[in-house]
Design brief:
Strand content: 15-25%
Strand order of the largest sheet: 3-2-4-1-10-9-11-14
Helix content: 25-40%
Oligomer: single chain
Distance between the termini: 12 Å
Largest sheet: 8 strands, antiparallel
Number of strands: 26
Radius of gyration: 25 Å
Bound molecules: fructose -6-phosphate
């Protein structure tokens, strides 16, 4: 999704902005732009496409103040005119924006009546004209007055020739942070854009405006300085051709990171420090609602099964974009759990804010420390995975599943879960990183499988109970990485309609570990085979019988039924990756997609 970087200091801004933008590329974008205050000639540069396509042609402006942006189109097509920075009628105010101005059409019509001339279709441009309208010599005052008229979400950085030597930034529902360096200040929508220059950051809160000058800055209220925990080299590819493969290969490590120091095997329990402050409240909870989007929603669905079966708490799942428009009926004994890698997904955040208005307890499972979700939930669990750079989620999903398993034990032990059961789950969790490593060793085998199936255009994924959401995840990953048609359903649903599609050109991947629904899955596999559909099974090691039923088998190690998704999803991630590579796609940045979806 869109990315912002701004710089003000003593060094030429352009190379710093460029390197910041490149670090935001992983979020996905379709166009980009820079504005630099070069005293000779202010420099505005906007292009459609990827930065690497134009790098040879970049001029080298010498100014020490600038703003830059990667755009992922929402309002207005992918054109140079719609790329940021946008400007006012006089080309004196330049602005970059993440988010969406929901009332831009009404504002634009009014501004046009007042004589303003627009040059783009992008909602952002109204901000420039509004600031122009209210500008009376002081940029932050102009910004403040302009923002009073705006509805929607924004992280903005603004500069003006009429009040130079400063960048004014503001945020509402779209992340923005200040990077406090040595003799320099940066602003960015994502810490990765400032990390090479500073680790000292201030996360802006909603409705805050900050003014950055070459030697100081101020915000409307005092904010504490935070240190970003970030391992620079972790953000590199470490020899892998793509971040996607690197991150899949880190899935065993992801489990380790998520569970480290949290398992109390002898007590059959887990320690989740982030929930300590609300322990008392949690005891009274008798219903859980899990809300998330995309891949995270499939983790939520696995969590639903875990929480009901082992913690004995009624649980239900909804996706963020639907949940807030239902009229969810909740009471004081309901808690809502929001699951998000980025902690900045607009749909999930909107649902969270809706639940906060209703006054119920809100929990978060989040990877990004200091994200909006982490700050706005009452309590939560960090998945502690480090940065996930590839647009498609992989290790984040694994971390979310591990967090949900721990939450199940945590809540279950407060209710009726016996010590012996707690011990069983926790000791199996402790073994998972090694078991995941075993599955990752299958990568060459799965690459071969991808070669065998690379010419098929459609795939079905089926699973039941804990592995039904894994079928959905396998299909989503294949769609988004390889652009092939894929669907994931519960095995039992095929016969209710979808089976009509199955023929020899429509392979199915059945996730069928040896668990409580294995026999049922075998029936579903037979239904498909009877219609001539090619079949790949993800089965438990030692199950030789399955070989007779299907064309290909991927074996995963045995673990507790509720934990099988953590292992069964790994081959599916690898399969989607290899298919996409074979088909020649940019696996880290699939077309039309963005890493953090910060628009509704
Ligand atoms: C799929 C994918 C997306 C995200 C979804 C939620 O591979 O990455 O479906 O899972 O956009 O993102 P977060 O977890 O950041 O809320």
């Amino acid at each position: 999704m869109c990315g912002i970087v701004g710089y003000i200091g003593k060094k030429p801004a352009f190379p710093i902005l460029l390197s910041g933008l490149k670090r935001l590329e992983y979020r996905g974008y379709d166009s980009f732009g820079f504005f630099v205050f070069d005293k000779e000639k202010p420099f505005l540069f906007k292009k459609v496409g990827k930065i690497s396509q134009f790098e040879q042609d970049f001029p080298n402006p010498s100014g020490e103040i600038g703003i830059a942006h990667t755009r992922w189109a929402t309002t207005g097509e992918v054109t140079e005119a719609n790329a940021h920075p946008h400007f006012d009628c006089q080309k004196e105010i330049f602005l970059v924006h993440n988010g969406i101005i929901e009332n831009y059409q009404a504002l634009k019509a009014k501004l046009i009546k007042e004589g303003h001339k627009f040059t783009s279709e992008c909602d952002t441009e109204v901000l420039c004209h509004l600031i122009e309208k209210y500008f009376e010599g002081n940029l932050e005052e102009g910004v403040r007055k302009a923002l009073r008229e705006v509805r929607g979400a924004y992280g903005i950085a603004v500069v003006s020739k009429k009040d130079p030597e400063k960048i004014v930034v503001a945020r509402l529902s779209s992340p923005l942070l200040l990077g406090i360096g040595n003799d320099e200040l940066l602003v960015a929508s994502d810490p990765s854009a400032v990390i090479t220059r500073t680790r000292q950051v201030i996360n802006l809160d909603d409705n805050e405006i900050a003014v950055l000058k070459p030697d100081n800055f101020f915000i409307l209220k005092e904010k504490p300085l935070e240190t970003i925990e970030w391992e620079g080299e972790k953000a590199e590819k470490k020899g892998y051709p793509y971040f996607m493969l690197k991150e899949i290969m880190e899935e065993s490590e992801a489990i380790e990171n998520a569970i480290r120091g949290r398992l109390a095997i002898e007590e059959g329990s887990v320690k989740l420090g982030g929930l300590d402050t609300i322990q008392g409240k949690l005891r009274k909870i008798n219903r859980l609602i899990l809300v998330a989007c995309g891949t995270a929603s499939f983790a939520a669905r696995v969590g639903e099964y875990m929480l009901e079966e082992y913690a004995g708490i009624p649980a239900e799942v909804d996706i963020g974009s639907e949940f807030r428009y239902r009229k969810p009926v909740v009471d004081k004994n309901t808690a809502a759990i929001f699951i998000s890698q980025s902690g900045e997904t607009a749909d999930t955040l909107a649902a969270l804010r809706e639940m906060k208005k209703k006054g119920i307890l809100t929990l978060g499972i989040t990877n990004v420390v200091g994200s909006a979700q982490a700050r706005e939930t009452d309590a939560g669990i960090y998945t502690r995975l480090g940065s996930e750079i590839a647009v498609a989620s992989s290790k984040a999903f694994i971390g979310q599943l591990a967090a949900l398993a721990m939450l199940t034990v945590y809540l279950g032990r407060q209710k009726e879960m016996a010590l012996i059961m707690g011990k069983r789950i926790v000791s199996e969790l402790a073994k998972l990183p090694d078991l995941a490593r075993e599955v990752l060793k299958l990568a060459p085998e799965i690459e071969k499988l991808a070669k065998k199936y690379q010419d098929y255009k459609n795939f079905w994924f089926i699973g039941r109970k804990y592995n039904f959401p894994i079928a959905s995840e396998g299909a989503l990953k294949l769609k988004e990485l390889s652009y092939l048609h894929a669907e994931g359903t519960a095995g039992g649903e095929l016969k209710h309609g979808s089976l009509a599609l199955i023929d020899e050109n429509f392979p199915t991947i059945a996730i069928c570990p040896s668990d409580s629904v294995y026999e049922k899955m075998v029936s579903n596999i037979e239904e498909v085979k009877a219609r001539g559909g090619p079949m790949i099974a993800v089965a438990t090691q030692g199950n030789e019988e399955i070989r007779k039923l299907v064309d290909d088998v991927i074996y995963i190690p045995k673990t507790l039924e509720m934990l099988t998704p953590i292992l069964s999803v790994i081959p599916l991630h690898l399969f989607a990756y290899y298919m996409a590579v074979l088909l020649g796609h940019d696996v880290d940045r699939p077309r039309n997609l963005a890493k953090s979806v910060t628009v509704e």
